[in-house]
Amino acid sequence: MHDDYFDFVEQLYDTDQITAKPRALEGLRVLDLSHMIFGPTAARVLAQYGAEVIKVELPFTGDYWRSSTYWGKYWKHSNPLWNFINHSKYFVAIDVKEPRGREMILQLAEKSDVVIENFSPGTVEAWGIGYSTLSAKNPKIVYASCSTFGQYGPFRYFPGWDLLAQGASGMLSATGYEGTDQYFKIPDFYGDFCPGLYSAMMIVMGRNDRARKGKGQYMDICQAEILMRALPHFSYFKSMGEDIGRTGGHDPAMSPSGIFKAAQGAFVALAIASDAQFQGLCSAMEKPELGQDSRFSKALDRLKPENAAAIEQLVAQWVSGLAVDGLMSLAQTHGFPAAPVRDDLEISEERWRQERGNVVVFDDPMYGKLKLESTTVRLSATPARIQWLTRPLGYHNRYIFKSLLGLSEDRIRELEKARVVGYWDYRVGQRPPVYYDIENDPIFNYQDGNNG
Amino acid sequence: MADKEKVYSRYVRKVGTSDRLAQWGRMLGGMMSADGKPEALDDIMVLDLSYANYAGLIAAGLLAEAGAEVIKVEPAGGDPARVVTPFGVHKNETGITFAAESRNKRHVMLDFGEASDREKLGRLMAKADIIIETYAPGEMDALGLGYRQLRELNPGLIYVAMTPYGHTGTRARTHGRIPWSDLTSQAESGLCAILGDLPDAPEPMNWPTRAGFHAAGYAVAVEAVAGTLAALLFKRLNGKGQMIDVATSDAYSSCVGFPPTIGHLWKRPRPRYGTLDYGLCPYGFFKCKDGYVAIACFRDQDFRAALKILGKWDLEEEWRHLIDRITDNVDKVRGLNKEIEAAVAGFTYDEIFGKFSRYSIKAAGSKWRGGGLPVTTKMLTAEEVFKVDHWKARKTFTDVKEHNFGVLTLPVAGKMSETPLRVKWIKTELGADNDYVFEKYLKN
Asked: Quick check: A31 contacting B, CB < 8 Å?
């Protein structure tokens, strides 16, 4: 290897240059009508790449996830976990059920490139803000309807979310130990977040197509189907006539593989794909004879359940005497996959994640410093970035209504009085932190030259 | 289902909405087939240089489903991902998962040790719009085929590198030669630590465990493709390519986002919670007479509804408020969870589903908003999912001919009205498309 390769890449990714670089989705306007995690995550991915995302919530109610958190732990009168889902967005509160509110949403949508919603299927159509209404006014719109079971089919109106989608898709049945009653769901709303990423992928696909053909389109994005796409279990069942079943910490497609206890009770994962990796493991174990053993030397033999069990027993013994750092240095020297089992605290503290900008400490004018995940997908010329954390309900009303819809201060006051638009009530997660001087905030009290 | 469609939303049932709903229904009907429709990315050429790496293999597969010409380039001997297959099940040394991720791809074999083949690879790379590669950081550069060299030849190139620790940061140097696996990505990115039974359960059930599928590889592939397509749009509008560096050891935390914020604010890691939830109780799947059924109560009214239906109203007083049911004290909520377990065990799935859905439909139509929306579903295996009419009506699964397995059945996710995703073919023979690719791209 050329020694200067890493210098070249580090320069390409110079973190001091991030704010000076352009953004990939600059100029893309997104109307985010969604709530909870699935839809908002799609919009957040677009925001991190520079899209102008306007999140519309119900006045005095807001997104239910504003006041949710784990274990009742709040931070500065807000849900700290909500920042990852909704950073860098504009927050407006408009009541869609008021005719004037619906009109405002349609006006915003006409000026947008993308609409994202995740109400139960049919709801936006019933409200008159669905694709059939909007595409007539704005044929360039990419309209993403996100739901658990899709917009079509006998089960479509059935409500759902992460947990139900994991159960209905077959995903839940894959994790745990054979013969037990415990099927572990993938935690932290993976069944919402992963489909949220997939939706962002589809939306940008649609925007690429529009760049070629000038036309938008409608997307029926079904959460349960996106989880199915992750499972080899369907192809396996159809070809083999049986389910893969549950195999605990062992990956039946890799051998040896598993989660093992190393010295001092630390857990490590190890999984071997290729024969070259296996030879590397054998030299690390100082057991070259295993590399010659006909049960183990070829992957397809090593994967047979009885052979996998035999080699894993030897690996477990070997690992039990090793410190984590020692194992990792052997993995680097001999070229086989190994990793420590990292927990929340380690992930928040490990230096390499912060060096890359995967994990950032963001200093926000309203909330101060918070450590949060950015993204592990690093674009060298148009890097993702966090522009601000979340904001109270209706914080950007004046800014968006004046600058985008051209409404006057008087008109906004009238809409406020009629409760067509609104702000927070006193619930945690909706209101600003008590120490914050919202009355003198220039964005919240936005004035522009034309409208005062 | 012969019954009238079950509608839960009060808005959808409102008088005066039927015209719009009918128009929408006609459009959806037109979306159910991809026949004759164009593809979103059929002007794009992608080189899939993934090696023993499903994150890369899946990412290239997602682009292929959208119509990109994806050419999988394997070195002599083939990609070891071919033999990453459950229990070693294979046909002609090709595993099922590799075949499934070969959707719509072309297959080229080049011997990287041969100067003439390296030259061919370089010429292909010079014509590519997107390259996905998973070799150790610096390895392609040492061959003279890394981003540093290619960006001179092909300034619009989007070069996606997917490795456990990325090409930047200290770990790229100290751990860069450690190969990828899904299990190690799950472990390193914070998933395994919170998967498994409660700390006081017997060993090894209380150990960290793995998600039983490519949970890390799939999530990071999807996230990488979202970023890649953002870069592709930027290139279409500005002409400029770039490098995309993905560290797969951050796959899970980059997907769900919670681990670093929780670690930072709580100053301690979460213990494993078994089948309990980190938010609320009851929230999970419970064993009933004939399977496992979801009981998930977000709001107080959902909890009250579930208690009434399950005949456990006596629990209401002690557990009335959401704040009582948050799971910060695991010993406290285990009591409630056990009560729900015992109650659910007395019903069949159909009994619970019937009661829940009758209650929800009535509550959604009521003027009183406190009725709750108890919602449930059954845990299904792959075999059971195939039998569900809903997925048949949606044509979720596609059957594709493949010469080793005969027919492969795959789910295709996400419906697009103008440029539907689709699986057109699957072939897996090593080097099958050498002639086609060399003729098309290297003739002059």
From this structure: no
Indicate if A136 and A277 belong to the same structural domain. no
Q: CA B62 to CA B414: how far, in whole Å?
A: 11
Provide the residue range defining the domain that includes B335: 283-380
| List of chain A residues whose C-beta atoms are within 8 Å of the C-beta of residue B405 | 239
Claim to verify: residue B68 and residue B183 sit in the same structural domain:
yes
Residues B183 and B211 in one domain: yes
Quick one: closest CA in A to B68, which residue?
Answer: A205
Q: What value does the mean pLDDT take over residues B149-156?
A: 97
- Give the domain-ending residue among A312, A340, A368: A340
Contacts A160 to B, Cβ<8 Å: 375, 377
Q: What is the CATH number of the domain that holds A388?
A: 3.40.50.10540
- Verify that A170 and A72 share a domain, yes or no: yes
**In a shared domain, residues B327 and B428:** no
pLDDT value for A452 = 61
CB distance B186 to A190 below 8 Å: no
Whether B314 is in a domain gets the answer yes
Per-residue model confidence as pLDDT tens digits over B46-72? 999 999 999 999 999 999 999 999 999
Of all residues in chain A, the percent with pLDDT exceeding 90 is 96
In chain B, positions 27-86, which contact chain A (CB-CB < 8 Å)?
27-29, 31-32, 38, 40-41, 43, 52, 62, 66, 80-81, 83-86
How far does Cα B428 stand from its chain's mean position? 23
**Cα dihedral A229, B353, A66, A98 in deg (nearest 10):** 100
Best probe of the A interface among B220, B283, B338, B391, by most A CBs < 10 A, is B391
Given this model, what pLDDT does residue A1 score?
Answer: 54
Beta-strand runs (E) in A177-224: 217-222
Query: Which structural domain, as residue segments, surrounds residue A221?
Result: 13-229+377-440
What is the pLDDT confidence band of residue B74, given thresholds at 50, 70 and 90?
Answer: very high
* E-strand stretches of B75-198: 90-91, 94-95, 105-109, 130-133, 158-163
Alpha carbon A312 to chain centroid, angstroms: 34
- Classify each residue of A161-180 as buried b or exposed e, where b means 16 or more C-beta atoms within 10 Å of its C-beta: bbbbbbbbbbbbbbbbbeee
Question: Least CB-CB distance to A197: which of B11, B255, B406?
Answer: B255
Q: What is the pTM of this model?
A: 0.98
Same domain, B137 and B170: yes
Q: Which residue of B170, B181, B259 is in closest CB contact with A348?
A: B259
Interface check B300 vs A, CB under 8 A: no
| Best of A10, A30, A201 to mutate (most B CBs within 10 Å, chain B) | A201
| Domains of chain A: total | 2
C-beta separation of A352 from A419 below 8 A: no
Residue A247 lies in a domain: no
Interface of B with A in 78-137 (CB under 8 A): 80-81, 83-90, 93, 95-97, 99-100, 137
Q: Does the beta carbon of A142 lie under 8 angstroms from any beta carbon of chain B?
A: no
